[in-house]
């Protein structure tokens, strides 16, 4: 039992790292663009046009750096999700396979956020500068971001957050209950095989709905949109199962407690 109990701190450390990274990701994708965390040298008038930008090293170099960071994250996230790598990790790390995957994903995302290079002099696809748009567009974006993040957190609860983070696998292993996926229904396993990213639409809203879509934000939104689209393969059967599970969770949450019923 002692060696098994040593797995718990490792799984908890992975969970804490992932949770902290998630909070930082909210700041990176929502708070910074909505609240204006990056000063612009020279202001909007100093920005270059699209044709001039492709010849300006001060724009191309940070964009190439940002692209490299994104490819690092996408490569890690995709490679470690392949069956070959998962089998190798399960052979050497056992029940910690999912926790290790989550920790590596969090570390890759931390690299993206910490070393991301803004391009304040680059061209913008759109920008709300004139009134009343300069007031109302950021407010509308803020509301949509709040709604999207609430939906994301709700969907993660539906998809068994503890299992996604690798905690449930370790918990079941310590208690001798086996692999949690072995207890899933065939419909659930089918859904998981088709949907690696259950919050696709909400993340796309966060990525694209911003008051100012600059060059580096456009790169971030385009690449992650492409990645999310390629990883999204739901059909009508999956959607019916997902709708039924959501209704069941909502029914359980809305049931009165025994003390209240008395």
TrEMBL record:
Q: Give the main localization category.
A: nucleus
Cellular component terms (Gene Ontology)? nuclear inner membrane
Q: Which gene encodes it?
A: LOC111152188
What's the family?
Belongs to the nurim family.
Sorted alphabetically, the keyword list is: Membrane, Transmembrane, Transmembrane helix
Among PANTHER family, the record links this protein to: NURIM
Chain segments annotated as transmembrane:
59-79, 100-116, 136-159
Question: What is the protein name stated in its UniProt record?
Answer: Nurim
Where, subcellularly, is it found? Nucleus inner membrane
Membrane topology field? Multi-pass membrane protein
Tell me what organism the protein belongs to.
Answer: Enhydra lutris kenyoni (northern sea otter)
Alphabetical list of InterPro entries matching this protein = Nurim-like
């Amino acid at each position: 039992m002692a060696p098994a109990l040593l797995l718990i701190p490792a799984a908890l450390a992975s969970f804490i790292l992932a949770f902290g990274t998630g909070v930082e990701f909210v700041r990176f994708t929502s708070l910074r663009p909505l609240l204006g965390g990056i000063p612009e040298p020279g202001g909007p008038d100093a920005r270059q046009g699209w044709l001039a930008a492709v010849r300006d090293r001060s724009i191309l170099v940070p964009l190439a750096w940002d692209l490299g960071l994104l490819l690092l994250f996408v490569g890690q996230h995709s490679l470690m999700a392949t069956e070959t790598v998962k089998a190798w990790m399960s052979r050497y790390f056992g029940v910690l396979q999912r926790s290790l995957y989550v920790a590596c994903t969090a570390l890759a995302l931390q690299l993206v956020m910490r070393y991301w290079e803004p391009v304040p002099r680059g061209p913008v696809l759109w920008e709300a500068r004139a009134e009343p748009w300069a007031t109302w567009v950021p407010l509308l974006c803020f509301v949509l971001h709040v709604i999207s993040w609430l939906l994301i957190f709700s969907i993660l609860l539906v998809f068994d957050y503890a299992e996604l983070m690798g905690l449930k696998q370790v918990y079941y292993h310590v208690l001798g209950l086996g692999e949690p996926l072995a207890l899933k229904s065939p419909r659930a396993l089918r859904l998981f095989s088709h949907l690696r990213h259950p919050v696709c639409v909400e993340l796309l809203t966060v990525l694209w709905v911003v008051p100012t879509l600059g060059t580096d934000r456009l790169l971030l939104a385009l690449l992650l949109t492409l990645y999310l689209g390629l990883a999204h393969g739901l059909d009508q059967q999956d959607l019916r199962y997902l709708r039924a599970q959501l209704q069941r969770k909502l029914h359980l949450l809305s049931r009165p407690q025994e003390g209240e019923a008395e």
